[in-house]
Design brief:
- The chain is α/β, with parallel strands linked by helices and about 350 residues long.
- It has 13 helices and ten strands.
- The protein has a five-stranded parallel β-sheet with strand order 2-1-3-4-5, with helices on both faces. A five-stranded parallel β-sheet has the order 7-6-8-9-10, with helices on both faces.
- The chain is globular and about 55 Å long.
- The structure holds 5-amino-5-deoxy-1-O-phosphono-D-mannitol.
- The site of 5-amino-5-deoxy-1-O-phosphono-D-mannitol (M6R) has 16 residues, from α4 and α11.
C-alpha cells in the first residue's frame, strides 16, 4: 500500500526518519552487539562486503571503523570475494551486508569465507533469510519491507546500525575519545530528526535540480573520505531509476583523467561532509570543475564555505562526519526520484532490474 504516495520509492524515502529510529532502538537492546564487538576485537583481519547499495554501506563501515577504532577494515564488492579469499584464515571476521539476505553474490562470499574459518556477522533487513541463517551473528535493520527496487530506507538504516557498531568498537578498543563517542551517539540518537530535516530542506530544490539533471546524459558524483560511499550511492540511484549515466569517484582523482570530459554545463554533484579538512580539499575540486564550466551542485552542512562557489547548494543538518549517510543521502535519493518522474519512468520498477538478485 502506497499510503497516498505516487510511488513506493517516495513513500520509502519518507519512511526513513522512523526506520532509522526503529533500527537504533533495536540495536540499543540487542545483546548481539556486544558479542559482535567482541568478535571484531579478537579478529585477525576484518572484512566487510555487500553488493550495490549494501556495498556502499559496507564501505561506510570500513571508513568509520578504521577511523574510529584504528583497526583496518577491508571492504570489497561481494562478487569479487575470490581475490581476498587466499588472505583469509581462521579468526578473521567477515561482515556481510544484505537488505534481502538472499543476494547470491553475497551468500557465496559468506560461504567461501566460512569454509576458511572466518566468523560471519551479517546485517540484514529480513529475518531468517539465507544470509542470516548461515551467519554466526546477525544484526537486523528494522526498515520494514522495502518494495521499490531502489534501496532507500535500507541504506540509511544499515549505515545507522553500522555507525553505531563502529562507535561501540572504537570505545571497546579505547581508541575513541570519550567526548567524540558521546557526540556521535547523541547524533545517532537523533538520526530520525536529522533525516527529517534533510527531507524538509531538500524536497523543493531536489525537484528543481532534477529537471536540470534529467536533461543530461551524464554526471559526476564526487566527494572525499566518508562522503565517497554516499556519492557512489547517489550515482547508483540516478543510473538505476532515471537512466542518467553517472560516475562516482574520490574527487582527488579528477585531475588524473575524468576532468577531461567536463565541458560547459556538465553536472557535477559534490557531497560535502561535515569535516573541515575534507571541506577545504573539496573547495579546490569545486573550483577546478567550475573553471571548466561545470554545473556544480553541492549537498553539505548548513553554512558550508563551499556555498558561494556552487551553482546550487542543498543544505543538510550539521552532525558528526560519521553520520554523513544519514544527513546527506536523502537529497540524492529525491534527486533521482524526481529525475525519473520528470522523464516519465516508473521509479519503482527500473528496467532490467530485480529487487533481489538470487543468481550469480
Ligand atoms: O538485498 P541486498 O542488499 O543484498 O541487495 C544488494 C543489491 O542488489 C541492491 O542494493 C541493489 O543495488 C539496489 N537495487 C540498489 O538500489
Amino acid at each position: 500500500e502506497k499510503s497516498g504516495y505516487p510511488h513506493f520509492m517516495l513513500k520509502e524515502i519518507y519512511e526513513q526518519p522512523r526506520a532509522v529510529m526503529e533500527t537504533l532502538y533495536g540495536a540499543l537492546n540487542d545483546q548481539l552487539i556486544p558479542e559482535a564487538v567482541k568478535l571484531l576485537i579478537d579478529a585477525g583481519k576484518i572484512y566487510v562486503t555487500g553488493a550495490g547499495t549494501s556495498f556502499h554501506a559496507a564501505e561506510h563501515f570500513s571508513i568509520t571503523g578504521t577511523k574510529l577504532a584504528g583497526k583496518p577494515i577491508i571492504s570489497f564488492i561481494s562478487s569479487e570475494y575470490d581475490t581476498y579469499l587466499p588472505a583469509t584464515s581462521e579468526g578473521d571476521v567477515l561482515i556481510v551486508v544484505s537488505q534481502s539476505g538472499e543476494t547470491m553474490d553475497s551468500l557465496k562470499a559468506l560461504r567461501a569465507f566460512k569454509r576458511r574459518g572466518a566468523r560471519i556477522i551479517s546485517v540484514s533487513n529480513v529475518i531468517d533469510s539465507a544470509i542470516p541463517r548461515e551467519s554466526h551473528i546477525t544484526l537486523y535493520t528494522r526498515a520494514g519491507p522495502e518494495i521499490g527496487v531502489a534501496a532507500t530506507k535500507t541504506f540509511t538504516t544499515q549505515t545507522t546500525l553500522l555507525t553505531y557498531l563502529a562507535v561501540r568498537l572504537g570505545e571497546a578498543v579505547g581508541r575513541l575519545d570519550v567526548g567524540e563517542g558521546k557526540e556521535i551517539l547523541g547524533n545517532i540518537g537523533s538520526a530520525g530528526s536529522l533525516v527529517k530535516e534533510a527531507l524538509e530542506s531538500a524536497e523543493k530544490l531536489a525537484k528543481k535540480l532534477a529537471t536540470a539533471i534529467s536533461r543530461s546524459s551524464s554526471a559526476y558524483y564526487l566527494s572525499r573520505g566518508v562522503g565517497v560511499p554516499v556519492a557512489k550511492e547517489g550515482a547508483l540511484k540516478i543510473k538505476e531509476v532515471a537512466y542518467v549515466h553517472a560516475e562516482s569517484y574520490p574527487a582527488g582523482e579528477s585531475k588524473h583523467g575524468p576532468i577531461a570530459l567536463v565541458e560547459n554545463s556538465f553536472p557535477v554533484v559534490f557531497v560535502i561532509p561535515n569535516d573541515s579538512y575534507l571541506e577545504a580539499l573539496l573547495l579546490g575540486n569545486i573550483e577546478e570543475m567550475k573553471a571548466r564550466g561545470a554545473y556544480v551542485v553541492g549537498v553539505g552542512p548548513e553554512g558550508s564555505r563551499t556555498m558561494e562557489l556552487l551553482n546550487e547548494f542543498i543544505p543538510v543538518p550539521k552532525a558528526h562526519w560519521a553520520l554523513t549517510p544519514v544527513t546527506h543521502t536523502v537529497p540524492l535519493q529525491l534527486l533521482a526520484y524526481y529525475a525519473a518522474v520528470e522523464k516519465g519512468f516508473d521509479p519503482d520498477k527500473p528496467r532490467n532490474l530485480a529487487k533481489t538478485v538470487t543468481v550469480e
